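Sequence in, structure out. Go.
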Amino acid sequence: MKEDITLAEAQEQVDQWIKTVGVRYFNELTNMTILMEEVGELARIMSRTYGEQSFKDSDKGRDLGDEMADVLWVLICLANQTGVNLTEAVKKNFEKKNIRDIDRHKNNDKLK
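Output:
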């Protein structure tokens, strides 16, 4: 695998992996539940690394980047299953935020 990949390449590589190694996609509702599980695992590491909770023995050695990649993987699966082009979705999302939030954060006294 090359060093940097685009969202489109990630979508294609996940699709190929699922169809060969993974046999098939889990259904969308199963993947949505898996996504929530993975987000929970990420939240657990975040709360122990940056929050006030202490690590349990079972939490030690967990890699934050790996947990984020697990979330991204399942999100890519859902995008593939539902026909969402993540490259286009991210572009549209930037456009939306650039219009909606052009002055919002600059004018937020809480951020000063």
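Check: DSSP finds four helices and no strands in the chain. The chain has a mean pLDDT of 94.
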